[in-house]
Design a protein that fits this description.
9-stranded antiparallel β-sheet; 4 helices; alpha+beta
Length: about 140
């Protein structure tokens, strides 16, 4: 009698896994998603794209993509003593890398240096240091 009940509970838990696996809030994408670049008016400039279908870092014909799985507003800890970097807004978490969004007096931006080391092979060492500001929607 106990075995069918355990199987039912196990089956119920397994069917809810996809709902917990994708914790990417649409409001986060609306507020912080889009394209970021050091030179939004230059189509050849490196860019970062945050969207529901992918987190992407691209430059020329090279790109690094991952499936976004979640967002986090407390990536640096929720405790009052946790050192949260100034301007931190949200982290978009992907299968292979994450993208962090910050805000300063100039607006939203995505830092690559110190946050996405894998991007260096795509954008180059110099571009890693640049400010990738949010581009206007087209």
């Amino acid at each position: 009698m106990r075995t069918p009940r355990v199987r039912f509970v196990l089956l119920a838990c397994l069917t809810t896994l996809p709902a917990f696996g994708q914790d990417l809030r649409p409001e986060s994408l609306k507020l912080y998603g889009g394209t970021f670049s050091p030179d939004c008016g230059n189509a050849a400039a490196p860019r970062v794209r945050i969207a529901a279908d992918a987190l992407e870092i691209a430059s020329g014909n090279r790109s690094l993509r991952t499936r976004p799985t979640a967002d986090s507003y407390t990536s640096f800890g929720g405790a009052p003593t946790s050192p949260v970097p100034e301007g931190y807004q949200v982290e978009f978490i992907g299968d292979d890398f994450s993208i962090y969004v910050f805000e300063d007096a100039k607006g939203l931006h995505v830092p690559l240096q110190d946050y996405v080391p894998a991007a260096a092979s795509i954008v180059g060492a110099q571009a890693m240091k640049l400010r990738f500001g949010r581009c206007p929607s087209r």
